[in-house]
Amino acid sequence: MNNKGKGLLALLGVAAGAFAFWKYKNMSPEEKQRLKNKANDTGRKIKEKAGEVEETISEKYDQLKNSAKREANEI
């Protein structure tokens, strides 16, 4: 991507950020609270999924380790 394309993307990003800030500033307190609750809920779900993935990886690692030990003992 050339410099003009990168500059245009940066400009669009700044414009989107400014629009989001303006929109947030004009929200009612109830709308702001709903947005905050949604963000917190999304963060909680991401943490839960990350924990599940970590647990699954740990289980798979233990299975592979035990399998390797069994094969080594059979040799």
Describe this structure in words.
The protein has about 80 residues and is mainly α. It has one domain. It contains two helices and no strands. The chain has helices at about 5-25, 30-75. The radius of gyration is 24 Å and the shape is elongated. The protein starts with a helix and ends with a helix. The mean pLDDT is about 90.
Tell me briefly what this model is.
The chain has 2 helices and no strands.
SSE order and pairing:
Elements: H1 3-25, H2 29-74
Q: Assembly state here?
A: single chain
Strand content: under 5%
Helices, by number, come to 2
The strand count comes to 0
Rounded radius of gyration (Å): 24 Å
Helix percent reads over 70%
Shape: elongated
Structural class: mainly alpha
Encode the helix/strand succession as letters: HH
Number of domains: 1
Characterize the largest beta sheet: strand count, sense, and whether it forms a barrel: none
Low-confidence stretches: none
Mean pLDDT: 92
What tags apply to this protein structure?
75 residues; mainly alpha; 92% helix; single chain; 2 helices
